[in-house]
């Protein structure tokens, strides 16, 4: 481990590869590069301290550079013990960024690093999963008066924040970047779908064709996973607790059933719910010999691995991100320690996907600074016009032009007199 006053990373010698990867990411992050270009000119974040707990990937590195271009001071750590790309962490450390992160963090290091970011006394927090925000609210309340706003990246974090709001525990405004239209479409649906399928492939070298692939949860992420697995030839089954989403899955052509029925036929199970113990020990005991379990929700608690570890008669690592458990004479395989499989075994979402998501983060930070003291203490939506701006930036990056309404059409849509 390489350590300094402002960093703790696995190996600084990885920095050159990290810089190469960030340069490649920038080529596919045209929308965010436009934001960065404007930030460099306008410096909307001058003297603002931004503390981040995000997956430390090449794309996150580009976001960090964008915030710094806008005048911000930045400190960052990871938001998941297995998601850091060590070469990117080294590159950011070499560039002078305050960073504490490595792949395979212990629980002790994970929270020590979050504390380091908190001690940076951020004016803005950027979080993925709400651990940074919850630590501030639980153990560092004296800093809250100086915090302008926070930005949350993922569904799991939004669930936690809304629970905090309902309990009157939330003490500073939070922008639900996850709930942007662009985030749901590009990141959750296309990004999670592709990167989850990729992570499972990297961990197992699995042939999807002919397998029964059980997707637990049919939100935006579950929809993406189901569609990509189907595209590779899998027979997809969906389990759900929400009637409308279950109906969507059925109309999309998937079999929908209870977990009690799906468990008897599934070859691969992937949880994407943001909830706890979606697959428990009793369910695991009913699985087929050789069944594979993966999770693409933010936390590893979607699979009850604690109970599995206690009940299994044997356990060994058979591939870097594939563990074999012997349970009741059957072998089950757990991928990526039950953590986000797309980042544990893969590289996460493609750069083009994260370009729109991180436009959302960068523009949310700018919006919060511009509206300092005016935002209510609750979970907020980014204004729709900013979300539309992100979509327009991405269309420009893709060299796509769209039509505009004529004055006559505008007048028609804003009037009620004209009818049949």
Map the helices and strands.
Elements: E1 2-4, E2 7-9, H1 15-27, H2 30-42, E3 49-53, H3 58-69, E4 73-77, H4 86-94, E5 98-100, H5 107-119, E6 124-127, H6 131-139, E7 149-152, H7 155-166, E8 174-176, H8 181-204, E9 212-216, H9 220-231, E10 235-239, H10 243-251, E11 255-256, H11 259-262, E12 268-271, H12 281-285, E13 292-295, H13 305-311, E14 314-319, E15 322-327, E16 330-335, H14 341-344, H15 351-370, E17 379-380, H16 384-397, H17 407-413
Parallel strand pairs: 2-5, 3-4, 3-6, 4-5, 6-7, 7-8, 8-17, 9-10, 9-12, 10-11, 12-13, 13-16
Antiparallel strand pairs: 1-2, 14-15, 15-16
Describe this structure in words.
45% of the residues lie in helices and 17% in strands. It has 420 residues and is α/β, with parallel strands linked by helices. The strands form 2 sheets. A 9-stranded mixed beta sheet has the order 1-2-5-4-3-6-7-8-17, sandwiched between helices. It has an 8-stranded mixed beta sheet with strand order 11-10-9-12-13-16-15-14, with helices on both faces. Helix 9 (220-231) links the parallel strand 9 (212-216) and strand 10 (235-239). The relative contact order is 0.14.
* Number of self-contained structural domains: 2
- Evaluate the radius of gyration: 22 Å
Counting helices, strands and paired strands, the structural category is alpha/beta
Structure annotation, total helices: 17
- The CATH class of the largest domain, by name, is Alpha Beta
How far apart, in Å, are the first and last alpha carbons? 73 Å
Largest sheet: spatial strand order: 1-2-5-4-3-6-7-8-17
> Which percent bin holds the helix content?
40-55%
């Amino acid at each position: 481990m390489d350590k300094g006053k402002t960093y703790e990373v696995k190996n600084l010698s990885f920095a050159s590869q990290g810089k190469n990867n960030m340069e490649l990411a920038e080529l596919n992050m045209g929308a965010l590069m436009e934001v960065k270009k404007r930030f460099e000119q306008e410096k909307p974040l001058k003297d603002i301290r931004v503390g981040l707990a995000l997956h430390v990937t090449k794309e996150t590195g580009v976001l960090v550079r964008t915030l710094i271009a806008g005048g911000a001071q930045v400190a960052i750590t990871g938001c998941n013990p297995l998601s850091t790309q060590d070469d990117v962490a080294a590159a950011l450390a070499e560039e002078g960024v305050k960073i504490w992160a490595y792949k395979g963090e212990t629980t002790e290091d994970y929270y020590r690093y979050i504390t380091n970011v908190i001690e940076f006394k951020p004016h803005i927090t950027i979080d993925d999963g709400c651990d940074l925000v919850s630590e501030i609210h639980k153990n560092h309340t004296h800093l809250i008066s100086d915090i302008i706003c926070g930005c949350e990246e993922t569904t799991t974090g939004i669930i936690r924040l809304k629970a905090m709001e309902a309990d009157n525990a939330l003490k500073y405004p939070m922008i639900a970047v996850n709930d942007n239209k662009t985030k749901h479409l590009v990141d959750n649906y296309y990004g999670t779908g592709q990167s989850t399928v990729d992570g499972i492939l990297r961990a197992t070298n699995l042939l999807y064709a002919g397998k029964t692939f059980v997707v637990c949860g049919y939100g935006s992420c579950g929809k993406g996973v189901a569609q990509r697995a189907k595209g590779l030839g899998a027979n997809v089954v969906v389990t759900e607790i929400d009637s409308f989403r279950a109906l969507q899955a059925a109309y999309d052509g998937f079999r929908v059933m209870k977990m009690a029925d799906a468990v008897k036929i599934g070859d691969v199970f992937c949880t994407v719910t943001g909830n706890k113990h979606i697959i428990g020990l009793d369910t695991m005991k009913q699985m087929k010999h050789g069944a594979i379990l993966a999770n693409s929700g933010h936390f590893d608690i979607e699979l009850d691995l604690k109970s599995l570890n206690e009940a299994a008669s044997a356990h060994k690592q058979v591939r870097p991100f594939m563990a074999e458990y012997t349970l009741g004479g059957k072998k089950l395989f757990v991928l990526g320690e039950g953590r986000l499989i797309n980042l544990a075994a893969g590289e996460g979402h493609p750069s083009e996907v994260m370009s729109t998501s991180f436009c959302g983060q960068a523009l949310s930070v700018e919006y919060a600074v511009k509206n300092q003291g005016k935002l209510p203490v609750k979970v907020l939506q980014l204004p729709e016009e900013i979300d539309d701006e992100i979509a327009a930036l991405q269309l420009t990056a893709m060299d796509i032009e769209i039509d505009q309404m004529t004055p006559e059409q505008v007048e028609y849509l804003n009037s009620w007199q004209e009818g049949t």
